[in-house]
Design a protein that fits this description.
The protein is mainly beta. About 5% of the residues lie in helices and about 35% in strands. The longest helix has 11 residues.
């Protein structure tokens, strides 16, 4: 059993396996153990929020590169053995701005750097040699890209870098500066931008969420994260606030389509959620008529699972971590969209003066604190023909979803992430990532009214012929692992969380409560690992400023999957 099930009574562990899809036939059993943690500020006990966000690995040099937005550097760690590593230096990008993302391929490090003067101005991508030793005066190449480069990735052959330029406004209101979102495509050999792909000309499905009246379509669309198909032909770009995914043909540098992701129906069995932090019920996961979730994915990763049957082994599938994101408070910000349901009459954004609900919605009587009254919902979605709010749309789906290459849902984890974390840490269910206590009691339910565990990161790796997805949970912390070899029937494997819930809030604030706020996660194959014969999992944690290395061991059982 994995760490979650090892901590549970056998009857409950067995029940979780049955509920969440444990395999009937033996597949590789995973064992994950933390072996080393680096603290961005030097030592545990001097926490540095923002000190560890995105991590990338260069297998040839055994170096890890971690963005440190607080210090405006990319910190370099060397992995030297089975349970140790060291900090060796930092690439300082502060002369231009702050780093938002890092990626490595063929010994070259690429860093997305936002403009320090104004993040609405054009950003840059900085390129270093992964083996650089002169951190005071490194050899660097820079390429200008769009406004607020938030994430970047190499194509599998390392020849191209794709950059998601989010283009956020400086504030929401009259006179704000709102650059256009875009994707920059950089040819590494020539260090030039071969294409700058915008979103103003594409015809959009009406379900693509355009939520800023007064902004153009190109300004409203904000690329968040990119995954490239295994064959390097196609890029899938999450447009988080727009609840959509864009598809780019890399060979022709062409935006081919934008897929609206639709909505998750929280009235269906298995799609429940705990929607209140004031219901005095621990882990109160239930369904609600009239409530829908905006998927709004952050990270995305794509793969080609093998198998028999029509299309299997040929189609690309993508997995999204459905975090959710709003654009400010609708009762405070001129262009804000989020509001507690019970405060719907206080909406002032976009020149409004309160919102009425339809008679049908009012009849459901969901406005109490212990129901949906405290749930953060969108103030711009769910209206009927007479301008009254008819349905409720919350931010994020509290799940991860598998999509096929045509943008169709293949499978969604439903309410499993909340069920898993509630079983593992019942006293800290839906805790936030910056407190273990609330008025001297365990900090339970802090995020129930706002996106729950908040799935943030996702990476897919192949272990002994099986594909596994690792999903980072930004709020309660840790990551879940699912076997996704069959996209239509994923199987829960384990939940690992290196957070110390016994630490009081003073220790939390001092950075002495383990890992808090996982922002990115990756897996190092055992053939590339400094720990011979053992794969590694690397997690960067934004709130604690820590980067933790886990040993990943797989043992093959006696049985075989039916589809192998």
């Amino acid at each position: 059993m994995g760490p979650l099930l090892d901590r549970l009574p056998l009857w409950l562990a067995a029940g979780l396996c049955a509920t969440l899809g444990a395999p009937a036939y033996a597949v590789p059993t995973l064992d994950i153990t933390p072996v080393w943690t680096n603290w961005a500020s030097g030592t545990e006990g001097t926490e540095l929020e923002g000190g560890a966000e995105i991590v990338a690995i260069d297998a040839a040099s055994n170096r890890a590169f971690v963005t440190n937005s607080e210090n405006e550097t990319v910190d370099v760690l060397v992995l030297t053995g089975p349970d140790e590593g060291s900090y060796v230096g930092s690439f300082d990008v502060s002369s231009f701005g702050a780093p938002n993302s890092v990626a490595v391929s063929n010994g070259k490090v690429a860093i997305a750097v936002e403009n320090g003067g104004s993040k609405q101005d054009l950003g840059q991508v900085w390129f270093f040699d992964a083996n650089e030793t002169d951190f005071a005066a490194p050899s660097v190449s820079t390429v200008e890209v769009g406004a607020l480069p938030d994430m970047l990735t190499f194509t599998p052959d390392g020849g191209t870098v794709l950059v998601a330029n989010e283009g956020e406004p400086d504030f929401y209101g009259a006179g704000s500066t709102d650059p256009e979102g875009s994707v920059s495509i950089i040819e590494v050999a020539s260090m030039t931008v071969s294409a700058q792909i915008g979103f103003g000309a594409v015809a959009l499905d009406p379900l693509v969420r355009i939520s800023s009246p007064g902004a153009t379509q190109a300004q409203d669309i904000e690329p968040e994260y990119i995954s490239v198909s295994p064959d390097g032909s196609t890029a899938f770009v999450t447009l988080q606030e727009n609840n959509a995914v864009a598809v780019i043909d890399i060979a022709s540098n062409t935006l081919t389509r934008v897929d609206a992701l639709g909505y998750k129906d929280h009235s269906l069995d298995g799609n429940g959620l705990d929607a209140s932090n004031r219901d005095d019920i621990d882990g109160n996961i239930q369904t609600y008529e009239g409530l829908f979730g905006l998927y709004m994915p952050d990270a995305i990763d794509c793969y080609k699972p093998r198998g028999k049957g029509k299309g299997k082994g040929k189609k690309t599938y993508c997995i999204t971590a459905n975090e959710g994101d709003d654009r400010g408070d609708a009762d405070e910000d001129a262009r804000g969209d989020a509001i507690r349901f019970k405060d719907i009459e206080d909406v002032i954004s976009f020149g409004r003066s309160g919102i009425e609900v339809s008679d049908a919605l009012a009849a459901m009587d969901l406005g109490a604190d212990e129901a949906l009254g405290r749930l953060n919902i969108s103030s711009i979605d769910g209206f009927d023909g007479d301008g009254k709010l008819d349905q409720l749309y919350s931010y994020g789906a509290r799940s991860f979803t598998i999509w096929d290459e045509d943008g169709e849902i293949v499978w969604d984890s439903g309410d499993a992430l909340e069920q898993i974390t509630a079983a593992a840490f019942p006293a800290y269910f839906n805790a936030s990532n910056d407190a273990n206590e609330d008025d001297g009691k365990p900090a339970i339910d802090d995020r129930s009214d706002n996106k729950g565990p908040e799935p943030e990161a996702v990476t897919i790796t192949k272990i002994r012929g099986e594909h596994y997805a690792f999903i980072g949970l930004e709020r309660i912390g840790g990551f879940v692992v699912y076997n996704v070899s069959d996209p239509e029937n994923p199987e829960f494997v384990l939940y690992e969380n290196n957070r110390d819930f016994s630490a009081d809030n003073v220790m939390v604030e001092a950075g002495m409560a383990g890992d808090l706020g996982p922002e990115s996660i990756l897996v190092i194959d055992k053939k590339d690992s400094p720990l011979k014969g053992t794969a590694l999992v690397v997690v960067a944690n934004e709130v604690s400023g820590s980067t933790t290395i886990y040993a990943l061991n797989a043992k093959t059982g006696k049985g075989k999957r039916k589809d192998k």
